[in-house]
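DM from R.C. (forwarded with permission)

"hey, sorry to bug you on a friday — could you get me a structure for this? deadline for the figure draft is monday and I only need the backbone to look sensible"
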Amino acid sequence: MDRLTGQAPSGHPAPRTPVLVDVAVLAAWQGRSRPAAAQNEQDGQAGQDRPEGPGRGFVAAAPAPAADTLKVLDVRWTALGAVDGHEEYLRGHVPGAVYVSMNSQLAGHDGPREGRHPLPHPARFGDTVRMLGLNDEDTVVVYDDAHGTSAARAWWLLRHAGMESVYLLDGGLSAWRQANLPLQAGDVIPRPGTARTTWGQMPVLGLQDAAELPDQGLLLDARTAERYRGESEPLDPRAGHIPGAVSAPTLDNVDHTGRFRPADELRERFRQLGAHRAGAVGAYCGSGVSAAHEIAALHVAGIPAALYPGSWSAWSNTPGRPVATGERP
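My reply, with the result:
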């Protein structure tokens, strides 16, 4: 399984590639500054809850990308959301941000056994990347209004397609608002880009890989603990979890503000879940969306991991696949 995750020998973390960008950095890149009152308030909170500075896992403020190479994407989606994400986007978004549709641009459309949000076809996703206005040299920041749990899907897919300078806005739209930074209403229509995508740059688990991983490494279930235990299942045909998987709700990777916990805290969390003993680490969720957020948290912690895109929606729709319930793997 090492080929799937790229896990470094002897359990040592792989070199850290920045995953996150701080709100203050994005604002500076856009040529904005936070109002002094908001900056003092947020800095005071950071002093109480977070280490000074953006810390490990964050991209540095300098060198700043050229203005025409900075692209911002808005992924306004939640699995159980009753409100159209595009309507919310139109009411207010980070200035210059382009709306991205989860269902039509970040997922394929296959049968139930492939899951509710299978990976898009590589060529089609390449067209999507260019339609979003992206070029090879661009720096891309993605965000949402759901603690990063949907934006992480775009982050993962863009990295999977070979784009390297892609970052999650830590805290998302909520952090931008809290900093009293401006919002823009209406649609942003980008000029088509010329990015050349190279599919397959992030490790992926198939259904059989997910079945075998608990015997060879660590498979994390990023859904809520209730869904893991099989006490509720609002979306898929069977309740429970993949046998051998360990419950690791991805929302436990963020603090009360929706920002990622510091890298050392995340690394300790995953150590307690068994990552230090595992030769390989993988993650799944309901349909492969919020599990990308778990992958991002693992990367912040310095732990490479593979995504099972089909996730529980594919597993539970496949006849003959066993289902476990309760708190035990």
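R.C.: lifesaver. Residues 5-15, 44-53 have pLDDT under 50 and may be disordered.
me: no worries. The longest helix spans residues 36-49.
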